[in-house]
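Q: Hi! First time doing this. I have a protein sequence and I read that you can turn it into a structure. Is that right? Here it is:
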Amino acid sequence: MLATLVDEPFHRPGWVYEEKYDGYRILAYKEGKKVTLLSRNAKDRGESFSQIAAAVASLPSKTLLLDGEVVAFDKKLVSRFQLLQQGEVPYVYMVFDCLYRDGQDLRSRPLPDRRAALEKAIGETERLFASRRLEGDGFAAFKTARENGWEGLVAKDASAPYIEGRSTKWLKVKVHQEEEFVIVGFTAPEGSRTHFGALLLGAHRGRDLFYVGKVGTGFDQKTLNSLHAAMRPLARKDPPVKNPPREKEAVWIEPKLVAQVSFHEWTDDERLRQPVYLGLRDDKRASEVVLPEASRSGGRSRS
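A: Yes, that's right. Below is the predicted 3D structure, encoded as structure tokens:
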């Protein structure tokens, strides 16, 4: 079940509000002692997150299907995708739904029933936690998210069943701007920088790919090395975007790599302001990266 992005915080009776995490969405399947962790594009993450798999395997339920997000927290307990990518701090599984438990399909049940099932299922198991619930008032919940520096919040209709796909029964409100973009090329390095200077980014509108700006910060030497190794084999002669920028010595690449980027806002001409590279995503196809609605309605986002 995927949340629909809305521009502004709101309050609705009968809805609950949860912290929005910045990590990898994972479905955890348990059958006996066998556990499978699947990303949103059906990649098996059991090896990448082996400690989560082991924790789920230790649960008493014979059959179980959990939905949640694998995240890494900083010292202020803010989830950071970049920390998860770097792998230098422990990761945990923040569980926000239970779809199946011990022979019972819970998808048609309202959220309170599913929440109770997940809390019983995971108990106090190491590395497994129920998602953080916020105030019952949507505006107060958004204020808490903003004051704590969280990515945002997810609002959920408590009476709704679990529905596969994008739904308006789950709505997300962002505090910080963060999106996925397709890497369409890179610029030449300057000064002491090696391999490349900045990544050139794009997003789709319909079937066409459009340039949205470049990001030149957020890289350490290890990231520069690995990104350059991934991009070099994808080099092509022509720009893959409809509106290529005037960049001297730009190297264009096949639009296959997806980067997660934080930024301050959209400019009026649909460019990213103050972008920072956070990491590569392999759980989303380049064809799925589209220009957010906020950037199409006057450039500046209100979220």
